[in-house]
Amino acid sequence: MPWRTALSNAVLILELQGCEKEQSEARAQAALKLTGLAGYENFLPKDLSGGMKQRVAIARALVHDPAVLVMDEPFAALDVLTRTEMNSELRRIWLETGNTIIYVTHDLSEAVFLSQRVVVLTPQPGTVKAIVEITLPDERSESTRDGMEFVGFQKRIRELIGHRKPASDDRRARDRRTIVKSTAASVRGRWSHRAVVRSVGLLGVLVALLGLWKGILVLFDIPAYLVPPPEAVFTGYIKQSGGRLWFHTWITFGETIAGFLAGGLLGFFMGYALAKSRALSDMLMPYVVAAQTAPKIVFAPLMAIWFGFGMMPKVLLTMLIVFFPVLVNTVLGIDSIRRNPKELMRAAGATRFQTFAKLELPSILPEILAAAKTSVTLAVIGAVVGEFVGARSGLGWLAQFSAGYLDVTTTFVAILQLVLLGIALYLLVDVVQKLALRWREED
Fold this sequence. Notes:
This protein folds into 3 domains: about 160 residues, P-loop containing nucleotide triphosphate hydrolases (Rossmann fold, 3-Layer(aba) Sandwich); about 30 residues; about 210 residues, MetI-like (MetI-like fold, Orthogonal Bundle), CATH 1.10.3720.10. The chain is built from 18 helices and 4 strands. Strand 1, helix 5 and strand 2 form a beta-alpha-beta unit.
């Protein structure tokens, strides 16, 4: 699980079984030491190599001392050198623990090197064709593969298997996707050095836009009472930032945050319920989509009529705007959780709450935070629309009131503050996203 460290991954099964924390961590640390990962307990999977990730998986399987350990091609995705190293490590772990290991593989050399006995299966339907006793010494090394006895066992097993079909198209497609994914990851790693260039570019665009604004006013001789120059807006912003502007900003900020949190929580819990119940989704989802198609601005007058000119109508309008993106992303997130982790939780006897807290919530966090980044700017719009229709304070009210008295400078100041508020809230969610998703490799 990419959001858990090597230690917390290894201790997962014991957590689900309700073992005491100190005892669980001690057993997990012992398992990591056994697999050669002492000193890497606090590393995230993104900071581990492919072979080290496999060692963590083995440690997690060994930590609760199973009588039988079943491994289905665990090293198939590793390169040849790492796979050879992991064969030796697995052999060492088996000698130290004495656990029975059933190991599925299509690699003849791997099968002979690891095993005491090799079971050869027939094609569909799979039945036991032969059992070959491997009489090589318990202490084996890479030089063992060069011996005539080793080669003889390989030859015998190859003859028992006979002619087999080549790898399927699906397998080759998976291999190609793995190569493409690895290439894309290496390209993403080169993007970070462009941050400074992007910052300089953004600043240059801002300067160019301000220059264009000023140039149009001068070129077409537009009076300041229609469109104020940039310096007038800046001066007005400084003058009003002493108290009046920040009072209205605080009002709009409160409405935005309250509506954002209410809509986000409602969308999350309802989306989770719809994702977990097909019957509930079939019954309610069409109505949710139908409600979303109605422009939210048409509800603003009704909110003012029903709830007056206070904070409530703005919060409700903002909540309606935020609700749908969070709901949809929650449903998509739950649906995209891979099958293997879910089967792991079921096999470990996890309760519904444990599955939610340890698998589902961390898995869908990227989708939830992506929806939050989009919704937080929409929440500002919802609050402002509510203030346009019925309010006595707030940046939306300030912009509308100033325009009514032809005070366009103050109107521009209110618009500028709304832009800055939206950017600040977006950046705040972006920081939360980066802190919460530090385990992602693309970060």
